Amino acid sequence: MATERTASADPEMDRRLMAVALRLGRRNLGSTAPAPAVGTLIVGFEADVPVILGRGLTGVGGSPHAEIAALAATGAEARGSTVYTTMEPSPDPVDGVSDVEALIQAGVARVVTAMENPNPRLVGRGHAQLRDAGISVTTGMLADEARRLHAGYISVLAAGRPHVTLKLAVSADGMIGRVAGERMLVSGREAFARLQTMRIEADATLIGIGTAQVDDPSLTVRVPGLRAHSPIRIVLDTQARLSPSSSLVKGAADTPLWLVTSSEAPIANRERLLAAGVDVLPVGTGSGGVDIEAALRLLAERGVTRLLVEGGAKVSASLLHRGLLDEVVLFHAPVVVGPDGVRALAGGALSAIERSPRFRRVEEARLGEDRMVRYERSV
Ligand SMILES: NC(=O)c1ccc[n+]([C@@H]2O[C@H](COP(=O)([O-])OP(=O)(O)OC[C@H]3O[C@@H](n4cnc5c(N)ncnc54)[C@H](OP(=O)(O)O)[C@@H]3O)[C@@H](O)[C@H]2O)c1
Q1: Measured between alpha carbons, how far is 155 from 164 in angstroms, rounded to an integer?
Q2: Is the CB–ligand 1 distance for residue 318 below 6 Å?
Q3: Domain range holding 205?
């Protein structure tokens, strides 16, 4: 294609193209851990009109890197182009060549990034090497959106734990289920569909043994054709009481199931679950069950960067009270459960989230009969 690849430095054009790169990166969110889900566009300009020459996104399991995939898709046309990528390219070689070297060798003219690499060992190095090679570098383009996309990777580096999102479906009277121990669907079909996307975009999803026993969930992705995108399923279960005949254990051969338990859990229980294909992970105990901070550290060490928490009341309260929630998604349903219900947060009210200065409301949408409200940590 005859493109005159003059590097555009129009901030509005840069923003628009970075928005496309961010959407591209998001496609593999939940599949690239422990690496971030980066999106890269390689663009030429014909009289200031952008022509996308190639696209790339981080591969499943983190390889190839998005820049390498985009360069491979572009070929020789990359010479003189502008590259839009959602994170600073890495100077570390992966499979023999680093992103930075590959960009230099391809002869690109300009690199626009959304943010620096948050890894203290790498921060700024990729940008510096590109500049040293005579490539023009602009950074910080749509930085807030990029920090959202890469929140899991950032959280592991900054806090040593995954980015944690709590999802709760709440009735009009502030309940998430019935005390009697029977399963109850609080929210409707549209909320369930949104939950499927949340599962796809998470590396792992977690519940407490209380929810496992009452609901017997499978926690897999139920969208036809996308079951392989199911997150790792995790249960907090101090005594390793999870039943080998539960849906979770029965599906362990297809979708990984990790049981976080205490080192004092009965050996017979642990062995029974191990034999059924469950990864049994002992940690210390804390108030209310297993030491939840140690559990999150362990998950990060095992490569989990984005954790979805699907309740129930006690696990949600434990995370909230220790300041371990980064995002909360509430599905408000019009149903009334009545006084025999399970309150959304054990020992506390939902207003601990809704009115807390620690959270700000960032999204609201109607999903069928339900209303979805999403909060993000504000401090
Ligand atoms: N509407 C919704 O969105 C939704 C979502 C999920 C659940 N639910 C409902 O919630 C109810 C279950 O709530 P729940 O509070 O009993 O269950 P839960 O929070 O899922 O599980 C609580 C149990 O997890 C174990 N655990 C281990 N470590 C823990 C820790 N650090 N902090 C807290 N718990 C820890 C404890 O048992 P051990 O001490 O034995 O380990 C604890 O009793 C059910 O009715 C279910 O249907 C509703």
Answers
A1: 9
A2: yes
A3: 161-377
